[in-house]
């Protein structure tokens, strides 16, 4: 079976590497508009050959679009149009509502399955890919009923081979949940990094004091702006509401601190400690 | 040499464990107002004996106060008053201005050295202690000129035995820097956790989606309210200013997202990516 991976970065590369460790015979065709990334991906063994987009898609049983969400919007219909009749198309985008929207009237819509692996790191590019990224993580499949059963089954089988846990939800629910649990985390981290960089002109101070929790809280501020700026645009309505809630919560917390209301801030933190129980079992 | 550790939690316990791995002969006397913590600390080998406060301090060449900062404020003068003439007192508090303020007129002020190890985890209690917490981390020594040279030398020698890196600053600068790099991180993380817990009533959703960055950004929201509520009170002026800057930055970011101004949000994130270079060499 031929799998064409468009976008040879962290997610696309890790998907291929994860499958290559298993006893199945997939042939990976890589497509990347950055020739250095393509060459690197071949050198690192993420894919077995490099191709241009159309030739790759034409040869593949499964095409995976693992590109930033703005590129996804531009590519989805053209790639669907060139997709062989028996083939299946998936995307790995972090937004789903707009993506499902742009293909809704495409005659080949049923050959497309909208998915999102809940996995990532702050690193990007082919060198960031590693076989262990996807196994045991959640794969969300959106609007499954709009995809033909054989395409859904194909991708479900592959995700299960990768030992991923499948979760199903409508595209709009996906975007709402992701706004809170993923997109807001990235914004809070970027804003924290930006605030500290502005105030602490002495880099040595930042480095020296980062031991006390800063480095983990700000980790996501190392993430790729190329990937994230379009996500924030595409999910702006949900993110805006999530940010409003977050800013209100910070303001509430600040009022407690300003008023030296230690009982109230204690209570807020004690309740929030419940996150330890909920996340128990997740590393880092 | 006898070292009395008051507060047998993460920091006090890790300080003792770190020193116990070295070829020096320290005898550790443990003091804790929680009898279970005291018994656990003895059982885990953090200390060699358990004592009440006064007997422990009287026997020690060095007393370490590793208790929450509200307890510190209450204990500092009484402990200084009972400190033997040749002995030295240090504290590990995350605030320094108020702490140095309350002892400023104590006749034994020069026997006190105000220090703060820039190290911690989200865990607390004697079981959370580990020998590797302090080595290679920063130890800040505040208002060194107010301590007698032999006391400063004693603690510098011990911190160097622990392979810590020493940094010197006035107590007010310490509190200003820590507000941005440590205290703000904790507040941003607690507020993020609180926001998500309020919005996502389905814990399964939080758990499932936490892979995408949430778990590291929210890690500090597992921290001890007993420790943090009094820190926020004692450093409220600096924290309030830091929170104002952070909320303004979030509002600025939100406006970019609301206006779909991708160029501006891209630019903000690109600049903030510099945090990767600054923090390179620090894990997580």
Automatic annotation (TrEMBL), chains A, B:
Q: Which PROSITE patterns match?
A: PDH_ADH
Which ranges carry the Prephenate/arogenate dehydrogenase domain? 1-284
Q: List the SUPFAM superfamilies hit by this protein, alphabetically.
A: 6-phosphogluconate dehydrogenase C-terminal domain-like, NAD(P)-binding Rossmann-fold domains
Q: Gene3D superfamilies under this entry?
A: 6-phosphogluconate dehydrogenase C-terminal like domain (1.10.3660.10), NAD(P)-binding Rossmann-like Domain (3.40.50.720)
Q: Which InterPro entries match?
A: 6-PGluconate_DH-like_C_sf, NAD(P)-bd_dom_sf, PDH_C, PDH_N, Preph/Arog_dehydrog, Prephen_DH
GO MF annotation terms: NAD+ binding; prephenate dehydrogenase (NAD+) activity; prephenate dehydrogenase (NADP+) activity
Answer whether the UniProt record assigns the keyword Oxidoreductase to this protein: yes
| Pfam families reported in the protein's UniProt record | PDH_C, PDH_N
Which keywords annotate this record? Oxidoreductase
- One GO-annotated biological process of the protein: tyrosine biosynthetic process
NCBIfam families assigned = PRK08507.1 (NF006307)
Q: What is this protein called?
A: Prephenate dehydrogenase
């Amino acid at each position: 079976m031929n799998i064409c991976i468009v976008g040879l970065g962290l997610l696309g590369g890790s998907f291929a590497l994860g499958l290559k460790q298993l006893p199945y015979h997939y042939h990976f065709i890589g497509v990347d508009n950055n020739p250095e990334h393509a060459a690197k991906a071949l050198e690192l063994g993420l894919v077995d050959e490099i191709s241009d987009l159309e030739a790759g898609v034409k040869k593949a049983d499964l095409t995976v679009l693992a590109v930033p969400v703005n590129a996804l919007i531009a590519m989805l219909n053209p790639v669907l149009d060139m997709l062989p009749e028996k083939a299946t198309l998936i995307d790995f985008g972090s937004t789903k509502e707009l993506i499902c929207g742009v293909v809704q009237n495409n005659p080949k819509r049923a050959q497309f399955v909208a998915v999102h692996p809940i996995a990532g790191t702050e690193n990007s590019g082919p060198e960031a890919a590693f076989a262990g990224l996807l196994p045991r993580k959640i794969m969300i499949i959106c609007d499954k009923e709009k995809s033909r059963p054989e395409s859904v089954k194909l991708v479900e089988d592959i995700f299960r081979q990768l030992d991923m846990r499948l979760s199903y939800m409508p595209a709009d629910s996906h975007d709402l949940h992701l706004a809170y649990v993923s997109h807001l985390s990235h914004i809070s981290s970027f804003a924290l990094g930006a605030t500290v960089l502005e105030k602490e002109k002495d880099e040595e101070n930042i480095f020296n004091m980062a031991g006390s929790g800063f480095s983990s809280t700000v980790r996501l501020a190392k993430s790729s702006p190329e990937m994230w700026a379009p996500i924030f645009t595409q999910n702006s309505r949900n993110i805006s509401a999530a940010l409003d809630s977050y800013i209100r919560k910070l303001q509430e917390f600040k009022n407690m601190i300003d008023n030296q209301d230690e009982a109230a801030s204690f209570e807020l933190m004690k309740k929030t400690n419940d996150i330890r129980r909920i996340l128990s079992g997740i590393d880092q």
